[in-house]
Amino acid sequence: MTAALTPPPVPGAAIEAGRRARAAPLPAVDSCTVLSATEVTARKLVRADDPYMEGHYPDVTIYPGAFLLESVYQAVLHLVWETRGTQSFAVPTRINSVRFLAALGPGDVLDIRCSCKPAGTDGLDVTADCRKGEAKAAKVSVSFRIVPAAGSTEVADA
After folding, report:
1. What is the pLDDT of residues 32-67, one digit of tens each?
2. d(Cα 55, Cα 24) in Å, to the nearest integer?
3. All domains of the chain, ordered by start, with CATH?
């Protein structure tokens, strides 16, 4: 659907309107590719100098699990913006399961592939396969609710 893009933490339309539906702590993906209305991929290079890496297991620096979840979230958010418009946001409602299988260290590339299924009228169930090269890094299952951005009256149809 789209070529790889460098996603901003908040879509330009929301910034121009002076609204922030959420504050992204830091960019947790370097690029996203929306493959279809139900699939998105994302990539993140783990950098030793990223601010959240300092002090996280100081002797063996690894990408924090919370940021891996944030990477999945930001990938899903870009799928929602691409398919439903930038006035829509994905709000995590439930982490169904997370299984961390391999640590990611500086220099590793995190590749994420999210498969999304509609859940009810305004929900999305997401399964994310996270890889480090050929190795599985994590398996994540999260449910989201799709909501309009602050100040918007409705969510655009997919």
Report:
1. 999 999 999 999 999 988 877 776 666 778 898 999
2. 21
3. 12-148 (3.10.129.10)
